[in-house]
Design a protein that fits this description.
This protein is of the alpha/beta class. The chain contains seven helices and four strands.
C-alpha cells in the first residue's frame, strides 16, 4: 500500500481567512475614497459661498465671468473641463436680468487657440445668443481677473464661475485688485451637490498644492 497522501482542499474557514485581508483592504480603500469625496464636497460647498460681496446693485445688470482651463484644443474644440465651465456659466445667468454679459477668460496656454475663443465657440454651439466678451491674453487666474475687471465695470451683480475652489480664488483676487467690484460679487451656479464628484478630491489637492507653493515662495 502506498504511503503517498493526496492533498486535500483547504477547509472553508481557512479559505475565508485567506480572503479576509484582501476584503479588508478593499473595504478600507472604499471607505477612504468615500471620506475623500465627502470632505471634498463639504469644502466645495463652503467655497461656493465664500468671498461674496455685500453691496450688489439691484439694477438688473449682471456679468458672469468664466475662468478657463489649460486647453490643447484637440479637434479644434474646447476640452471637457472648459465645456463644463461654459455650461455652468450659462446656467448661472439670471433669466430675469435686464442685461447679462458672459465673460470668457483664458489665453493660449495649452495650445495655439486662446481658451476664451474655444469656450465662446462652444457657448454658441449650445445655442447661447447673448453678448459675450473675451479675455484672450491672460495666462494665470490673477490675469483672468485683472483683464476681466475692465469688462465688468458696469455690472450690478458679478459672478465668477469655475470649480468652487478656483472660483473662490478668483473672488479673492478681485477683492485684492478691485474691492469696489468685489462688493458686487454674488453666488454663481457652479457647484451642485454630487456633480462631477470624482473631480472634487483632485481639485482640493490642486488647490492645496498651489497654496503651499505660494506659502513656500513667501
Amino acid at each position: 500500500m502506498s504511503d503517498v497522501r493526496r492533498g486535500k482542499p483547504a477547509p472553508p474557514c481557512a479559505a475565508l481567512r485567506e480572503r479576509m485581508p484582501q476584503q479588508a483592504a478593499m473595504v478600507s480603500a472604499g471607505a477612504a475614497l468615500a471620506a475623500a469625496v465627502v470632505a471634498a464636497e463639504v469644502l466645495h460647498w463652503r467655497a461656493s459661498r465664500a468671498e461674496l460681496g455685500d453691496a450688489p446693485r439691484n439694477d438688473g445688470t449682471e456679468a458672469v465671468v468664466v475662468l478657463g482651463y489649460r486647453d490643447r484644443a484637440r479637434g479644434g474644440r474646447a476640452n471637457w473641463i472648459n465645456r463644463w465651465r461654459v455650461r455652468a456659466g450659462i446656467r448661472s445667468l439670471d433669466p430675469t436680468a435686464r442685461e447679462s454679459l458672459l465673460v470668457l477668460c483664458g489665453g493660449a496656454v495649452g495650445g495655439w487657440v486662446p481658451e476664451a475663443e474655444l469656450m465662446a465657440a462652444y457657448a454658441r454651439e449650445l445655442g447661447y445668443a447673448g453678448p459675450i466678451a473675451l479675455d484672450t491674453r491672460s495666462t494665470t487666474t490673477w490675469q483672468n481677473i485683472e483683464n476681466a475687471a475692465a469688462l465688468i465695470e458696469d455690472a450690478g451683480a458679478i459672478k465668477i464661475v469655475s470649480n468652487a475652489l478656483h472660483a473662490a480664488k478668483g473672488r479673492r483676487y478681485l477683492v485684492a485688485q478691485r474691492p469696489d467690484l468685489a462688493a458686487r460679487l454674488v453666488r454663481a451656479d457652479d457647484h451642485r451637490l454630487g456633480e462631477q464628484w470624482w473631480l472634487g478630491p483632485f481639485a482640493v489637492y490642486r488647490d492645496l498644492r498651489h497654496t503651499l507653493g505660494s506659502w513656500r515662495r513667501g
